[in-house]
Amino acid sequence: MEVIMRYGQIRQYDIANGEGIRTSIFVTGCTHCCYNCFNEEYQNFNAGKEWTQSETDLVVSYVKSPTCSGLTLLGGEPFQNVQGLLPVVRAVRAAAPEKKIWAYSGYTIDDILEDELRSALLHEIDILVDGRFVDELKDPALRFRGSSNQRIIDVKKTLETGEVVLAME
Question: What is the largest distance, in Å, between two alpha-carbon atoms of the chain?
Answer without folding.
Answer: 44
